[in-house]
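Q: I'm a student working through a structural biology exercise. My instructor gave each of us a protein and asked us to get a predicted structure, then write a short paragraph describing it. Mine is glycogenin glucosyltransferase. I'm not confident about reading structure output yet, so if you can add a plain explanation after the tokens, that would really help. Here is the sequence I was given:
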Amino acid sequence: MSSEAFVTLATNDNYAIGAMVLASSLRKVGTQKHLFILITDNVSDKIREVLNKFFDTIQLVNLLKSPDPKILEALKRPELSVTLTKLYCWKLTQFTKCIFMDADTLVVQNIDELFERQELSAVPDIGWPDCFNSGVFVYQPSEQTFNNLIEMAARDGSFDGGDQGLLNQYFSDWSTKDIDHHLSFIYNMTLASTYSYLPAFKRFGKNVKVIHFLGSLKPWYCSYNASTKKLNTFIGNDHAREFIEKWWQMMVDNVHPVIEQLNIVGSMSSMAISNPNQPSSSITTTTADDDRYQAWQQGQMDYLGADSYDNIQKRLDQSIHGQQ
Ligand code: UDP
Ligand code: GLC
Ligand code: MN
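A: Happy to help. First, here is the predicted structure for glycogenin glucosyltransferase. I'll explain a few features afterward.
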């Protein structure tokens, strides 16, 4: 077994779907490294079955919640209080070196060279570049580090309520100590930044290796048409559109066939997926209102009600036949 691994996390079925797309993208660029996913109780059995097809190891861990969810509420991202669960990645001491990647990232070029970097290497955060973004980082598993992090979380909390605040508190000399620990932006290109610095994107964009769909609009909430290979409706920048369409194409080509093969209808209720081979078929989400949207974000699908397969089918028919 390779002693190096790519590690991700999913605490619910939505993020698990993101993780499947991430794993497919890693294999597509030819990595031979171990693919590892941490999951929690909330991930359904059916989705676990699918995850098995994409990851070498699935490990169940306890949900770790932020001691300070109030801060996240202020940031309007209460769902991120569970991201402290990421810390479990330090316990994977069967590996000598790992790269953690958020489940909302997509790899478009091989990044195995990152295993030559040392802990903790990461990309500056676009919101506050003296901090690193914890969506992609190189680290060295260690029980000791895990214990230290937990101790710090209990003692000091996290300034953003999630893992990123805590990790920046712990690796506090990241921005000053050693420039080798700064990774190029191409390893964690957060989409929002392309809005603000388009000329740089035009110059360097072709070098990008990892796209990070940071923020509350995740690709899996967008509505996609598998025939035209375009998003159905999208308000935003052309680059964001292009990358979300890339994510969806990976979904349609590599993930959807596996879900379909396993005939997992229940899990499909979170993302209405029609047969991409049918003409003018549409892949769409069923976020009818904000409440459902929020519930989805928390991984609470209403399998028998609003999100039931029948309702999804109805929505699909409406979008295919143009009825309201
Ligand atoms: N995550 C999860 N369940 C959640 C929220 C987050 O499993 O309900 C994990 C997942 O791996 C995700 C990461 O924590 O990619 C960080 O959250 P997110 O990507 O939503 O944060 P952002 O990058 O948008 O700030
Ligand atoms: C950030 C990171 C994400 C992290 C979250 C909570 O925005 O992108 O990976 O989980 O903050 O700290
Ligand atoms: Mn993320």
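A: Here are two points you could use in your paragraph. The CA atoms of residues 161 and 203 lie 35 Å apart. Confidence is low (pLDDT under 50) at residues 265-270, 272-313, 315-324. It's a good idea to check both against the output above yourself.
Q: Great, thank you!
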